[in-house]
């Protein structure tokens, strides 16, 4: 087998929001990544870190402030109207809230037919056949086609959203927290559906979520984002086995573990998340980091490759594992002291 081709490549992507003449919010600040054909890049981080903004800029729902986005080597930010219209067929998005993203005045059939009509694809009978094929892909019963979104449950509404994204035969889909609004049992069904579709049709995903367990299950690689920047990027299993950035380590320590034998130590981060408005010099995580040095407060570390394919934005990445044990021990001691003070 030949080497997998790069489908999507972002270079120094930025998205700033001007608040006033002196204040600028750095929502996405100079990030770069690649997604190969048939690959899933998981994007994780806490609320407000810029995850969804990345997805919206990639889909051109928001204009980029700077940077390039290449689709099969073409910078889509510089395409003319006709070229851009054609590429939109190949790049789709699944939104977080299926209820608000589906037109409440249209039936499921009309929602699925809309993309074909906008792109002038097929006659009315051909569109019916194409919709039947899409329904088969996502296991959506034809009996639901005449219903309106409010007549479906949350899981079925999201299946309709997935069907709509698949209708034009894309090879890249942004999944913007597609299961966060659903029950756990429904989440599993949607995730397995996305994975089955990916295997069958070789589709690439940018999978955005705050749920690390879900991201681990579906992703080939994971990028951890903090305050508009990538702080760690590595293969999915390597991130979980050998996270190096203090923020990634703290994030992973909060993942629930279903085991009565294994004791889990949480790292409790101190302080508040800094403002993304006019960020101060230095590492953006420094104010909450248990490993910080004077250098961290003054100089921002670059994203450095610490092992093949594993990138970390930290001056002290090689010391992080030992320090994380100290931080976990300290957090357990703090909890013990709190419990003792409450008893007194």
The average pLDDT is 88
Measured as a percent range, the helix fraction is: 25-40%
Q: DSSP helix count? A: 12
Radius of gyration: 22 Å
How many separate structural domains?
2
CATH architecture of the largest domain: 3-Layer(aba) Sandwich
Overall SS class = alpha/beta
Give the helices and strands as they follow along the chain.
EEEHEEHEHHHHEHEHEEHHHEEH
Oligomer: single chain
- Count of DSSP strands: 12
**Main CATH class of the largest domain:** Alpha Beta
Written overview of the protein:
This protein has 2 domains: 6-219, P-loop containing nucleotide triphosphate hydrolases (Rossmann fold, 3-Layer(aba) Sandwich); 243-343, no CATH class. Helices cover 37% and strands 21% of the residues. The chain is built from 12 helices and 12 strands. The strands form 2 sheets. An 8-stranded mixed beta sheet has the order 6-7-8-3-9-10-12-11, with helices on both faces. A 4-stranded antiparallel beta sheet has the order 2-1-4-5, covered by helices on one side. Mean pLDDT is 88; it is low at 325-329.
